[in-house]
TrEMBL record, chains A, B:
SMART domains assigned to the protein according to its UniProt record, in alphabetical order: HTH_MERR
Domain HTH merR-type positions: 1-73
Record protein name field: MerR family transcriptional regulator
PROSITE patterns referenced in this protein's UniProt entry, alphabetically: HTH_MERR_2
Signal peptide bounds: none
Family annotation (InterPro entries): DNA-bd_dom_put_sf (IPR009061), MerR-type_HTH_dom (IPR000551)
Pfam families the UniProt entry points to: MerR_1
Amino acid sequence: MRMSQLSAESGVAIATIKYYLREGLLHQGEQVAATRAEYDESHLRRLRLIRALLEVGRLPITSIKKVIEAVDDETLPVHYMLGTAHYAISPVVEAGEGEEWAAAREQADRMIDDLGWQVSRNAPGRDELAQTLVKLRQLGLETDLTPYAQAAHQLVTEVELDTIPLDGPRDAAVEALVLGTVLYGRAFDALRRLAQESESARRLKVSPPGPGDA
Amino acid sequence: MRMSQLSAESGVAIATIKYYLREGLLHQGEQVAATRAEYDESHLRRLRLIRALLEVGRLPITSIKKVIEAVDDETLPVHYMLGTAHYAISPVVEAGEGEEWAAAREQADRMIDDLGWQVSRNAPGRDELAQTLVKLRQLGLETDLTPYAQAAHQLVTEVELDTIPLDGPRDAAVEALVLGTVLYGRAFDALRRLAQESESARRLKVSPPGPGDA
């Protein structure tokens, strides 16, 4: 297809497509004449991935470049390619210092080991978990997160990983990982708040709201 | 206790305590002499609540005022007091327009009804869920969120609501709701990412990383 059709099918403006081509985020089309290049499905898939990283992952262009490099490096195993995208969309947490931090990080690491999870020592989730544990401890709140870990494990193994096509095109796998991580996370957060309200109403014996919610 | 001791025990600077007194966020102490007021446990609890709303809930002072008003209004049932805080810390989602939005909001409402949840028609979680459903549909992703709803329901009924003291001081209940909603949500998010990495490693048969994570 021509660039105009690629733009129409992807919903990405021609000027933007040209920018992605210049930045090397999108691979060049096949030059079929001096002023004409042909684009195909692989270009559509790449544009979908870039939009997912940009609009849902909210990544800056420099981070998108790193993810695209991992996608394009066919010698990089799929697991590490997915990890590059996964780490890029993770919240940035600075590792802390001092005994309190060390104890929390150790608790996070021990929990992951006890669960038998296979996770890199450098996974940003470890520091994210440690930071939350520090805060929970300081506030005197329960720090046994086992029920949360079990719920997360069940959702991931029974539902989430099945939504990622591990055998197909590399772009599609990364796109599914990013969209799923962000959007199902957002959905879970909303559902958890709704469930809290419902359970509060049940325990405090609030009569069901009427149609006008008086 | 004197204000200096209130400051020491709460970790809140005297100038900040005076600001909260002026703004009406903190109730006045008992005037025991012309230049001296006595503060008690209720002031400590209130300062804990303000800090929770400010530092963990990340609420602006105007929103904190509204939550404090709900706490101070003893005629407001506990469920609605908790709801005021809960809605204040929820992400702001603008209700959308058009058929696509209406269909998503209807799907969200139907799901909540099917689950038998008792949730106000005005709960911000409904629009949050609808917005996520619109995005999932546009991207051609699975919109059956039942497994997420079930996991959320289980965590909330078996763990989360038990951490909220519904019979004690009103400040303490709101504080526990805010801290629990935000911090356990953050913990779950980190755990979900870690579980994803682990399951990806398992499915893609990556050998366990060594101590140096080579």
